[in-house]
Amino acid sequence: MRRRAAWTTLATTLVVAWGLLIGTQLAGVTPKLGLDLQGGFSVLLEAPEGTDRDVLDTAVEIIRSRIEALGGVQEPEISLAGERNIEVQLPGVTDQERARKAVGTTGQLTFRPVYSVSIYGVSPLYLEAAAYQQAEVEAETADDLGETTTTEETTTTEAPTTTTLEPEPIDLTTVLPEEIPLCDLAEPLEGQPGCVDPETGFTLSDDPEKDAWYLDPEPNSLGQLEAFHLGPALLLGTDLSDAQAGFYTRGGSGGLGVSSTGTGEWAVFLYFSGEGSNKFESATKELSYFAVGDSRRRFAIVLDGEVVTAPSISSEIPAGEGISGGSAVITVGSADKPQQEADDLAVVLRYGSLPVALEEQSVLSVSATLGSDSLRAGLIAGAGGLALVALAMILYYRALGVVNVLGLTVFGSIVLSVYALLGETQGVSLTLAGVAGVIVSIGITSDSYIVYFERIKEDIHRGRSVRLAIDHAFKRSFRTIITADTVSFFGAVLLYILAIGSVKGFALALGIATVTDVVVFYSFTRPAVALVARSRFGEGGPLSIKGASGISLETAQ
Amino acid sequence: MKFFSRLYRGDIHWDFVGNRRRWFTASAVLLLTSVLALSIRGLNLGVDFVGGTLVELPNPEGISVSEVRDALADIGFEGARVQTTGGGEGIRVQTEELDADQEALVVEAVAAVTGADPDDASAQSVGPTFGSQIAASALRALIVFLVVVAGFISIRLEWKMAMAGLAALGHDLVLTAGIYALVGFEVTPATIIAILTILGYSLYDTVVVFDKVVENVEERGDRHTASAIVNMSMNQVFMRSVNTSLTSLLPIGSLLFVGSFLLGAATLREFALALFIGVATGTYSSIFLAAPLLALWKEREEHWQRVRRRMQRKGTEDEFAARILDVVPEAEQEGLPAVLTGAAPRPPKKRRRRR
Q1: Nearest beta carbon to residue B240 from set A373, A450, A475
Q2: Rounded to an integer, what distance in angstroms lies between the CA atom of residue B121 and that of residue B91?
Q3: What is B52-126's CATH topology?
């Protein structure tokens, strides 16, 4: 390499590399830290086998919307991982339970008419069956008594006593509509749509076209645990186009409404799609025939086999007149935190159904202190490793070792800047595994120097002059390094594509480091060594290149 | 000192190929031990692979493990595994998989004993199938990687080199796994990452070594036997390998040290441990296994057989002469530097100047 060309290349490289670092730092662009370095919460969800890519993409979008709707999460990261995994990363999130709910809740959203309500948390189906059985027994007893009076047979009197003392297990099939099966708990529930738990009488597998028995897990304002017998779905979640939480003032927005109490309160505003608004109107028309106070004037919004809310048609709606206009209001009444309640309900309504059932594979929460401890440990390890490598290289290669140390700063500047820029533009974050990857690549980067330097030494041993040696050695070792780095790079790319979780972060670091290594080798190491060779550190003295090759000391030529 | 200064100048002449039996035997013994350890003791799989919940809390007052264990037993978690981390600054509890409520219970119980703030707790819950998924994805990455890299090396260098490289790689993997089984280190996702890195590293190293062989074959392929050329190449790259291992092991050692003594760096330690073992075996195997394997294989090729016959006819002693391989009994070679057997590589007589 000619002196001028060497100077130009070297100067350009240094300006670009250091300038990038200083520039990004000044612009306030620093690497984005992964949640294992700053604390936070992450979940890995898994979809059933054979789930379509499109379906997963939709699920990712829905989860993202739900998380954003939760509010207060800075830069949530929801991404597909592997073939059927979704990785949700929420840096800085502390309210784990709420987040977990927002992420994991799946299932179909249905609007169903209420047929009957029991207020003791027991399925109406169960009560019906019990009542039926009781009636049977009584009828039997009545028959028996009748018989006894006429024929006076002593044995028959025992029958009623046994049934009352040891009640038979309630047989739900006596009152169960024909199309609804009892669940076979040994079989997967997905294959038994609409089935009912034979013990409790609650529906376990949702089928929008059949009757269902569901519980509202939150007690109502009177402290009662309501269990519902519901009809087939009137509307599905897809009929809803939007839902917003807001403050509702009676009369203010035109008297549409479903309400529970009072004026001026937190509410959820529902907006239906074209078809949905017709369905909703005809459904509410039916319901409005029932008297105010009748539980059949209510409908239930069901998600995941749980009644989310079961509002009643407002008393202001006259019989036979449904709620038209494609919108409605659900007031949340006197909850503890009405605003949050309305918000959460709106979120559920808006993004109610994930297109696929997701299972939590792994849940990780990292406290902020552990995160910063990890970061500190990573930095200390990195600094230590760097110092040790620098020391070893200078001791061994002398003047060339200094080139290596300078080269490491160039390498470090580029890697840091790349991370900062990737974090800013692509949302890529630096994780602990990434830090480890970068630290490991310090050693691997040094290898390209070693390959080159050893080559130079060898060529000098063969009798080449220092200047010739560095050029020849560069050609050969650059070839070697390209080959070897290609192998590393393949590895990194494949890992990045195929792996999940922390492996990905590591693969990214390795890939960035490998590419940077080649760039630094070509645009920094080569001109720097060329210039050293031309300076007095080329051939003279034990510190020079020639000195480091061990020749000038003993067998000076 | 003489030895080191020669080493420093790269002025070494060791007969790597000739001494292959020694290395092959050593590796066979190590591999056998590893396989035995793997089949008898098995791997100590971490929470990510068996499923369960891991809770970590600071331990500012240095409360003992048994106190924490008692506190957990009081609330019904008798089977919990309790360890200290970060040199006693942290407490780590491992139980079967817990839901959010149970997890909160455990955190509170431990925090009450150690006096830590429950908000400082970190937790990880893993379902039983998660690990198999990570392992499956890693395995898939591994297979694709090996196929692609073998293809690349075959095209760029030679397919026999690809095979020899893969053999060395397999050796490194089994050895690393064997050491994990033998010592009982916990296998975590970080270990998997490290092992995947070892793959890359081991192949990288092999490529550097074989690239030298290819270069030497180009330069003097007609004048020396295959074994001699491989030997020559090994001697030339030996210092590179030693130095590279050193510079790779230094930062890894730094990770290992920091990871063992600082809180919050458990992942770093797990990671560094596997790497440390892997890098060491990777360097060893590419020089002492892959290279002799390659030499043996190439000797069978027609071209190299011809070269060998010609050398014998002319009666010229090859560098790292054939007789070392064939005639001299094993015992006589032991510890004998190749220089003394007249096996020093000379610089080529005619230097081809390359532009």
Answers
A1: A450
A2: 10
A3: Alpha-Beta Plaits (3.30.70)
- One-letter amino acid of B351: R
SS3 of B16, please?
A: coil
Residue A207 falls inside a structural domain: yes
Residue ranges with strand state E in B90-143: 90-95, 122-126
Task: Sort out which chain B residues have CB atoms less than 8 A from A500's CB and list them.
Answer: 133-134, 137
Give the pair of three-digit tokens for residue B248: 């790779």
User: Rounded to a whole number, what is the distance in Å from the CA of A504 to chain B's nearest CA?
Assistant: 9
Chain A residue at shortest CA distance from B211: A480
Domain coverage including residue A76: 40-105
Same domain flag for A226 and A247: yes
Question: What's the CA dihedral at B153, B154, B159, B164 to 10 degrees?
Answer: 10
Nearest to A242 by CA among A350, A326, A345: A350
Residues 6+ apart with CB under 8 A from A380: B258, B262
Determine the Cα angle at A21 with ends A519 and A15, to 5°.
Answer: 60
Q: What is the pLDDT of residues A378-399, one digit of tens each?
A: 888 888 888 888 898 888 888 8
Q: How many A/B residue pairs have CB atoms within 8 Å?
A: 263
Provide the token pair at A51: 């789930």
For residues A225 and A212, give the distance between their C-alpha atoms in angstroms, rounded to a whole number.
17
Chain A residues with CB under 8 Å of B93 CB are none
Domain count, chain A: 3
- Note the pLDDT tens digit of each residue in B305-318: 888 888 778 766 55
Tell me the two tokens of residue B160.
Answer: 């026999």
Phi, psi of B10 (to 5 degrees): 75, 20
- The residue of chain B nearest to residue A463, with distances taken between CA atoms, is B347
Looking at the fold, whether A218 and A331 belong to one and the same domain comes out as yes
Last residue of a domain, one of A52, A73, A105: A105
In this structure, are A222 and A342 located in the same domain? yes
Chain B: nearest CA to A272, how far in angstroms? 36
Give the residue from B243, B152, B232, B155 showing the smallest Cα distance to B200. B152
| CATH architecture of the region B11-43+131-341 | Up-down Bundle (1.20)
Residues A528 and A386 both lie in one domain: yes
Contact B152 A440 (CB under 8 A): no
In angstroms, the separation between the Cα of residue A79 and the nearest Cα of chain B is: 16
Using alpha carbons only, give the angle A126, A132, A135 rounded to the nearest 5 degrees: 140
Taking contacts as CB-CB distances below 8 angstroms, the residues of chain B near A381 are 251, 254-255, 257-259, 265, 268
Same domain assignment for residues A316 and A415:
no
* Residue A38 predicted with pLDDT over 90: no
The 10s digit of each residue's pLDDT in A492-551 is 888 787 766 667 777 888 899 999 999 999 999 999 988 888 887 767 666 677 666 665
Cβ neighbours, 10 Å, residue B18: 27
Cross-chain residue pair A506–B121, CB shorter than 8 Å: no
ipTM of this predicted structure: 0.73
Instruction: Decide: pTM greater than 0.90.
Output: no
The answer to whether the beta carbons of residues A216 and A121 sit under 8 Å apart is no
Please tell me which residue of chain A has the smallest CA distance to B124.
Answer: A364
* Terminal C-alpha separation, chain B: 38
Beta carbons of B244 and A443 less than 8 Å apart: yes
**CATH classification at residue A509:** 1.20.1640.10
Rounded-to-integer distance, Cα B103 and Cα B54, Å: 9
CA-nearest residue to B148 within chain A is A490
Q: Chain A residues with CB inside 8 Å of B254's CB?
A: 381-382, 384-385, 388, 439
**Same domain (yes/no): A445, A530:** yes
Q: B58 has which bridge partners?
A: B90
Could you tell me how many helices (H) and strands (E) chain B has, helices first? 14, 6
